[in-house]
Design a protein that fits this description.
The protein is built from 8 helices and 6 strands; from the N terminus they run αβαβαβαβααβαβα. It has helices at 16-20, 48-63, 95-111, 127-140, 164-169, 175-184, 220-223, 237-260, and strands at 29-34, 70-72, 116-121, 145-150, 196-197, 230-231.
């Protein structure tokens, strides 16, 4: 049931009396992984985002000092994935359903006495949902610190291991995700089916981009026939091991900072 998470760090293995008796709950860090069940090309399983989130978090919690109280909730496997829904197998929640789910989980965590919640999101199609839900939870409960974080944005060396083109244009099911899946769930990767497919180039000097400061809305079939946006053919397990080690190291540092973090309020 706990997947990659160390069992002693898995929140559902606690009893209600364990939680009632837990000291200093205001600083205990609760982490909610949020993934997706969506297409990742012909070579990767639908579970990629959820698997990466749980895999990275599990490795980070293995490394974390035992003195820091942190618990992982079960993953929210489904996400807002409607940009991929033209590809069979993708399961998507609406923005409203995902937001309501996050809000109600937050309500429950707050009611239990906890005051630090991390939304560990691994799907690139929903950071904005995490950010809005986090803000709404903090507005609802002024002493509730909610951190809407993206799994890949902690300090890590991933881009150093990719080609310049992949680092710039690889967005989905490319080298990084395929490599880390080779480290986490190698039996579920069909590398012989891997392809390289990049989105059409924008006009030189264009201010607009698919992802960036001035984005345009798109769905995957607008820019990819295979569902891959990047180069999966260059992926290796060795690269994946290095990515997993580096991203999980970054999460160790972030969790340690969240544990000691306090939001100071100016005097009005």
């Amino acid at each position: 049931m706990h997947s990659f998470i160390p069992p002693e760090r898995f929140f559902p293995y606690l009893s209600w009396t364990d939680i009632q008796a837990m000291p200093d709950k205001e600083n205990v860090v609760i982490i909610q992984p949020v993934g997706a069940i969506e297409q990742h090309g012909p070579h990767l399983p639908l579970i990629v985002d959820a698997a990466i989130g749980m895999g990275v978090l599990g490795k980070a919690l293995e490394k974390l000092d035992d003195s820091i109280p942190v618990y992982a909730l079960p993953s929210i496997y489904y996400g807002k994935s409607n940009e991929h829904w033209h590809f069979p197998g993708t399961i998507t929640l609406s923005t409203e359903t995902l937001t309501n789910t996050i809000m109600e989980v937050g309500d429950s965590i707050y009611r239990a006495g906890f005051r630090k919640l991390v939304l560990m999101n691994s799907h690139g199609g929903q950071p904005q949902v995490m950010q809005m839900a986090a803000r709404d939870l903090h507005v609802k409960y002024e002493d509730f610190l909610v951190f809407p974080l993206f799994t890949w944005r902690v300090p890590n060396v991933t881009k150093d291991l990719l080609t310049p083109k992949e680092a710039q244009l690889g967005m989905h099911a490319g080298d990084a995700e395929t490599s880390i899946m080779l480290a986490l769930l190698p039996d579920q990767v069909k590398l012989e089916r891997a392809v390289a497919e990049y989105p059409p180039a924008q006009p030189e000097g264009s201010l607009l981009s698919l992802e960036g400061k001035l984005p345009v809305s798109w769905v995957t079939r607008d820019i990819s026939k295979s569902g891959v946006i990047g180069d999966a053919t260059t992926a290796t397990k060795e690269k994946g091991d290095r990515i997993l080690a580096s991203v999980s190291d970054g999460w160790v540092e972030v969790i340690k900072e969240i544990y000691t973090f306090q939001l100071t309020q100016p005097q009005l």
